[in-house]
Design goal:
This protein is mainly α. It has one domain. Helix content is 59%, strand content 0%. The radius of gyration is 13 Å and the shape is globular.
């Protein structure tokens, strides 16, 4: 466990975001989720994660979170229900630190 924490600290910035999103994979997502108190990622989690990654990689921006829930056919509060905060969802999706201004909206 100590080695896992050390490795995650090496690849994450001071806010817990991956410094290089290309280093993300399913295993990293699981580690990040556990560090956020989410024991297991369900299919609903993965739908949100895949959408967040796809949107970011296509547009380079943070999507409107209510839209994420709508597109993934989930309850309009799916982010809070699954991840507690949009910031945690963004972290687990392995996306880079969105910056101070964007974090205030998360």
């Amino acid at each position: 466990m100590g080695q896992m924490q050390y490795d995650m600290q090496k690849v994450c910035d001071e806010d817990g975001f991956l410094t290089d999103p290309r280093g993300w994979d399913d295993e990293v997502a699981g580690r990040l989720a556990r560090s956020e108190g989410i024991a297991a990622l369900t299919e609903q989690h993965w739908e949100v994660i895949r959408y967040l990654r796809d949107h970011y990689l296509r547009h380079g921006t943070l999507p409107v979170m209510a839209h994420v829930c709508r597109v993934t056919h989930q309850d309009r509060h799916c982010i809070q229900q699954l991840f507690h905060t949009p910031r945690e969802a963004w972290r687990i999706a392995g996306l880079p630190n969105p910056g101070e201004e964007a974090k205030t909206y998360m």
